[in-house]
What does this fold into?
Amino acid sequence: MSNSLFRKKSIDKILKDAEEGLVDDQHHHSGLKKVLNVRDLTFMGIAAVVGAGIFSTIGAASSNGGPGISLLFILTAVTCGFSALCYAEFASRVPIAGSAYTYAYVSFGELIAWIIGWALILEYAIGNIVVAISWSSYFNRLLEGITNWFQTHGFPNVDLSLPTYLITNPSTAKDAFEAATKGGLDTSKLAWSTAPVIAGWKLIINIPAFIIVILISALTYVGIRESKKSANFMVIFKIIVIIFVIILGFFYVEPANWNPFLPNGFEGVLMGVSAVFYAYIGFDAISTTAEECQNPQRDLPRGMIYSLVICTVLYILIALVLTGMVHYSELNVNDPLAFVFERVGQKWISYIVAISAVVATTSVLLVFQLGQPRIWMSMSRDGLLPKPFALLHSKFHTPYFSTIITGLLVAIPSLFMPSGRMTDLTSIGTLFAFVLVSGGVLMLPRLGATTKRAFKLPYINGKIVIPSLYAIFVYFMWNRITTAFSNLSKDNLQEILFLVFIFLGLLLSVMSFIKNLSLIPILGVLFCAYLLIEIPAISWIWFFCWMAIGLVIYFLYGYRKSKLAIEG
It folds into this structure.
């Protein structure tokens, strides 16, 4: 067993250690402060979820799906809801930091746990690079708005905006320069033209993105109590702003803009899958704080579910307001909330939106910068990463080394990397974790009916439901299935992914019929898997490369250093 790639951690041992305040098999006591309650966890969930998605990506999604994009928010919420219930089941039975990594360790074994831990870097660390870049854009837009206000109110010399070469990256700056040159436009004020040259290199870096990551990392380094207070304040502020925007926006809604509701059919709605799902990423991050919860088995499930419900309601209302205020075809802009209010003559609202966007993305950065170090801490305790990753600060009681490494991993790339494909990679990493967490529930040992727990995933027999839903899906997708088979010879990765999903659905349908599998975990697997295959194939290629790097590290270090391997 000690040499097996799928050696598992014992739930009974984990629970025994948790009751005694121990965190690993070496009898180390957790030095993390237990300060989080269900309200804090709910607020942290909202802090992680309501960020760049509601202020930016929702615009592009709406331009493809029209008013029907609200259906995609519901579909995505249901998908995340299935996963959230599975996360809640694990959280109630394995109240240890590590999130999906720890859950995979007790259900699938070490290799899958490592793969999940490596994939979660895409969600938290790499995902935060995208958030930091978005934050920089919102922050500079806010400075431009303040500058514009001063200049139109008798202060023409006031200019708070930053030079363009300090708020972007070389790749984006060069592309903008070449596009402007081809279009015969003025390039004199572009970053590529104005950037100073040092040692033959143009100085084009994203300073605001770097600074905000360093500041947030410093906050998470200091402690969880300070982090939760900051998160709670930011959540209250942005929810007030969003509700205000929704209420005011409904006064400017033109019902005619909601017709047709599905202008590009449901296919148009599905084109926004990656953007909409990106707007939901984060509710699972609170499971990494299990050892800092006062009552993790009760409060973690509630916090995840409450935050998901609240965010879904806000997203649906925002989608309806946006597509009701202006025609959906005009919404493919970077700042759709500010744009629609400018269109109806209420430009002053855009300043409030800009402030809220800065606050919202700051809160996302905060929660994700909390999550990644705690996953690394758990992996280090298990021997899969070097010991320093598990070290706790003697004064602040935080995983300080992991926090520093996470800060550097996010801050340095945010200086010069474009966000580009990273949004899709973040979605793949998250959905991949959701699939395995949902499937992992089926691997857990059954508990007796008399076992008392704060949360228990309801069992619904999927014997008939799953095969029936699969048959309906195949019926409506038959044309795509036949097309996918006919295109196999063309080396079409997107169609190959679709066929993999078809076979996965068939396998789970048969197993559900034979073994009476639980409905909710199976739906969690299938819904998340379907969203996965809709992500562009090129992003999958990068994901496979990322996974290959992770496996090399595991076999060179983790496999030999694992505590389960050493203990035999």
